[in-house]
Automatic annotation (TrEMBL):
Gene3D superfamilies, sorted: 3.40.50.12580
Sequence intervals crossing the membrane: none
Name of the protein described by the UniProt record: Capsular polysaccharide export protein
GO biological process: polysaccharide biosynthetic process; polysaccharide transport
Organism name: Celeribacter halophilus
Length: 379
């Protein structure tokens, strides 16, 4: 039986319910259990969750009460799962704040865990026993994927491109960031940088050495002059970001010697298509750029940040060097085919959309993920 923490949205809850149905049913928790009695790991788990909470408390009093809540939730979750060792803990995202301590309590109680999240392709989801995005269970050795594909024509072919057939840009929530058929970009030589939501867990958890979106913008302004003659960096803000980065971007344009252009109007994937290279911290747009056969530069942690698939960059000096040699960047098409076919066939389970807007996972895929979660605990 699956125990999941209610997601309070139709997509989340119908998806998790369908996962549970593949395992005989669900216990649904509307709130995280609470307990005052600490474990030896409580302080460490609470500190880790507080550090990556999306809503950071303000002031000493705010931090006190936030820490207290996380402490009660970790203790309560762990005791709940100690009483129900037969279950599998399922949670949406589960890597920040309260949901992090919920899943940490389950893991410390010895219960199998499953983390759910949107996948970067339509009609697919993430369901992984170790975490989502960069915390997932995908192997980080390129040789794994080429070995998996070796000798099997379908695994080396172009079947993976069907994942991108319905690829559309994210609808904008901001009047100043649009998805229009805009500027004539053909012939321009530019590196496209789709910005991410600054406080998203992809940034707070996995930005690596670059630290933040703001730091990246400032660094790009410094390295832009290293680009070959006639090249520029083209930046677009994220359509869901609540806070505009216009001030930082204006400063970057000036300090780059006008080698940076901000284009918040033109459709994101039009800019990907017209670009020579895509640069990102770890945005899914970097992965989706594979469908356009673009070289990709990554600055942060990402499950696709593998040499050959992309160009992982560690440090400002390395980024400056990449800028200077951007014209020679490429990628390994055979590795990309193997990797993307693995995502298609194995890693991202298919879902169907219900008439009411809910999601249902493929039952066989759900059972495979649940089996992997239980097997991970046994080993």
């Amino acid at each position: 039986m699956i125990t999941y923490l209610k997601g309070f949205s139709k997509k989340k809850d119908t998806f998790m319910s369908s996962v549970a149905a593949a395992d005989g049913g669900a216990r649904v928790l509307w709130t995280i259990p609470l307990s005052r009695r600490d474990f030896s790991e409580t302080s460490e788990r609470v500190a880790a969750a507080l550090a990556v909470a999306k809503r950071q408390p303000k002031g000493a009093m705010g931090r006190f009460f936030k820490r207290l809540l996380l402490r009660l939730q970790y203790n309560g979750s762990r005791r709940y799962f100690m009483r129900h060792p037969e279950t599998v803990a399922l949670c949406w995202n589960g890597v920040t704040g309260s949901r992090r301590v919920f899943m940490a309590g389950a893991a410390d109680a010895g219960v199998p865990t499953l983390y759910a999240e949107l996948a970067p392709f339509s009609d697919r989801m993430q369901l992984d026993h170790t975490g989502v995005n960069a915390l997932g269970s995908l192997p980080r050795d390129p040789r794994f994927y080429t070995a998996w594909a070796a000798g099997v024509a379908e695994r080396q072919g172009e079947g993976w491109r069907a994942l991108g057939e319905n690829l559309t840009s994210r609808a904008s929530r901001r009047a100043d960031v649009r998805q229009e058929n805009g500027a004539a970009l053909a012939g321009d030589k530019f590196l496209f940088v789709p910005l991410q939501v600054p406080n998203d867990s992809q940034i707070t958890l996995f930005s690596g050495w670059i630290g933040s979106v703001e730091n990246m913008i400032a660094l790009l302004a410094k390295v832009a002059p290293a680009l070959p003659e006639g090249w520029h960096i083209r930046i677009k803000e994220h359509p869901s970001a609540k806070t505009s980065l216009s001030e930082a971007l204006s400063h970057a344009v000036e300090t780059s010697g006008l080698r940076i252009v901000v284009d918040n109007d033109t459709d994101t994937f039009e800019q990907v298509r017209a670009s020579q290279t895509v640069l990102t911290i770890n945005s899914s747009v970097g992965l989706q750029a594979f469908f356009y056969d673009k070289p990709v530069i990554t600055l942060g942690e990402a499950f696709f940040a593998l040499p050959g698939l992309v160009h992982p960059v560690e440090g400002s000096d390395a980024l400056n060097d990449v800028m200077a040699h951007v014209e020679s960047l490429g990628f390994d098409p055979m590795l990309r085919a193997a990797f993307m076919n693995y995502l298609d066939v194995v890693h991202f389970p298919k879902v169907s959309k219900n008439a009411d807007g809910g999601l249902t996972i493929d039952e066989t895929a759900a059972k495979t993920c649940i089996h992997a979660a239980r097997a991970a605990i046994r080993h």
